[in-house]
């Protein structure tokens, strides 16, 4: 049996991570670089992207910042072709960029719906379309899309995000089959509540809301961004060479833990 060396497993490989300037995206970029890979962090905010690049450079890794809004199809194509031209390859893509806020559907403006679905659903397709062409030409590549379990069980206040992430799961499964014989794998990770500034401000803005989220997690804690990055790294690596079209849920048991009958743990 061949034992894979996880400490250098991305050496000589190139990844693109959208939303790589903060939170989960930053942790995935750091994790990729820590295993020897070059990473292009792509996003709207130059200062945030540069903070990630600097952290990676300080640790001896290789990274670059690429300013781009994933909602801009032409801009995405140019940005991703630029990465491929500069580095000669794209081995991995992580569609992590997201926009989210809690809103009742009847209060959601068309523009609010559009902002979130454009980033999550259209942005994921634009990036996958652009990077996928380079992967298909090379006959190898791996894509990880960041979703949430409400993509399949739904959740009040998330109609825009849940619809978009449900679409991303369907996209992942469709392309997993379409591109399977051509060496390109696509999977999702579905993180549960993860300790980041962006998610906290949007999804648990008050101490009560935070406690409510916490009590919904059987493991009774938030995830760290490093824990989520580890799931992404696995799916991007050759350790997951036979895994495609799947969703790896890393949520501390949250979505399975919904109480319907009397919960014996509460007695
Ligand atoms: C209602 C809102 C709103 C809110 C924005 N809008 N915030 N509506 N409640 N809290 C509406 C605006 O009024 C506007 O509509 C429209 O959305 C677009 O807003 P803009 O700010 O002009 O757009 P933009 O600058 O493009 O911002 C996009 C965004 C923003 C999604 C709205 O929040 C963003 O870029 N966020 C990125 C970071 C982020 O959200 N991170 C959290 C991800 S956490 P009108 O009609 O007024 O023009 C995550 C985890 C999920 O996804 C899973 C957890 C388990």
From TrEMBL:
Swiss-Prot/TrEMBL keywords: NADP, Oxidoreductase
The organism's place on the tree of life at top rank: Bacteria
SUPFAM superfamilies: NAD(P)-binding Rossmann-fold domains
The protein, known as: NAD(P)-dependent dehydrogenase (Short-subunit alcohol dehydrogenase family)
């Amino acid at each position: 049996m061949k034992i894979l060396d996880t400490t250098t497993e991305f050496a000589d490989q190139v990844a693109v991570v959208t939303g790589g300037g903060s939170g989960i995206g930053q942790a995935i970029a750091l994790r990729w670089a820590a295993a020897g890979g070059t990473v292009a962090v792509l996003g709207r905010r130059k200062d945030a992207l540069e903070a990630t690049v600097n952290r990676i450079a300080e640790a001896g890794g290789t990274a670059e910042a690429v300013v781009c809004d994933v909602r801009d199809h032409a801009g995405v194509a140019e940005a991703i072709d630029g990465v491929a031209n500069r580095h000669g390859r794209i081995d991995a893509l992580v569609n992590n960029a997201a926009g989210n806020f809690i809103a009742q559907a009847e209060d959601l403006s068309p523009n609010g719906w559009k902002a979130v679905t454009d980033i999550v659903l259209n942005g994921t397709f634009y990036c996958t379309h652009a990077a996928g062409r380079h992967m298909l030409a090379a006959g190898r590549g791996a894509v990880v899309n960041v979703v949430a379990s409400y993509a399949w069980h739904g959740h009040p206040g998330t109609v825009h995000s849940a619809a978009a992430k449900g679409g991303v799961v369907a996209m992942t499964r469709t392309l997993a089959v379409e591109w399977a014989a051509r060496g390109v794998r696509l999977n999702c990770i579905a993180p549960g509540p993860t300790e980041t500034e962006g998610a906290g401000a949007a999804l648990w803005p008050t101490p009560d809301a935070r406690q409510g989220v916490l009590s919904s997690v059987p493991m009774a804690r938030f995830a760290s961004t490093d824990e989520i990055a580890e799931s992404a790294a696995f799916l991007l690596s050759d350790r997951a060479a036979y895994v495609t079209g799947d969703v790896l849920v890393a949520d501390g048991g949250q979505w399975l833990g919904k109480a319907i009958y009397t919960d014996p743990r509460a007695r």
